[in-house]
Amino acid sequence: MSTTRLLLLGVVRIFQPAYGYQLRRELMTWNVQAWANINPGSIYTGLRTLAKHGYLLELEQDGAHRPGRTSYKLTTDGETEYFSLLRSMLWTVDGFHPDKMQAALAFMWSLRRDEVVDALEARISQLEAWLKSGPYSERQIREDPGTPNHVVEMFRITTARDRGELEWTRQFHERVKAGDYAFAGEPADWEPYPGMVTHWGEIPDPPANQH
Known about the structure:
- The chain is mainly alpha-helical.
- The chain has helices spanning 2-15, 20-29, 32-35, 42-52, 76-91, 99-107, 113-143, 151-177, and strands spanning 18-19, 56-59, 71-74.
- It has a three-stranded antiparallel sheet.
- Helix 1 (2-15) crosses helix 4.
- The longest helix has 31 residues, at 113-143.
């Protein structure tokens, strides 16, 4: 649910104000149905739920509330929630939910470079600690007579994923430190393709009350 919420808030923030059908179409080009397990038909429901909770403002066309024809923009609470979710997913490793980091990558440009560097260093430390404790956890599984032998492989596949993410995070960290990509307060490093709203090419500063 938190991944879905970040994706919806984030894509509204990019296009706002934007119609529901426009937001749905954009998210489908990101293949969110594959990696974030979002049903395309649930996007309209998610937008209405965020509006009900005060995170989005619904702008009805001609006073009519129709799926896809209502446009949305973030409220102040929505902006705060967006940054809260983004920072939570960026700073905290969740090996069982890789979709969280995937979503964070989609909106990482709205944070400043120094925070992204520090967050990646924090992720490296978390992953290193998990991998260091791994052999002891595996030994406990193997020595427990009540645990089926194959369970150790469930642990090992998780460890393999953590090891792969650690390697990627170290490399990504170095690329960001070296100046790759563009972040808040920096000139955009790419141009939107024709037909895309132009302000996506502009990287906004975080709200004044954010780091």
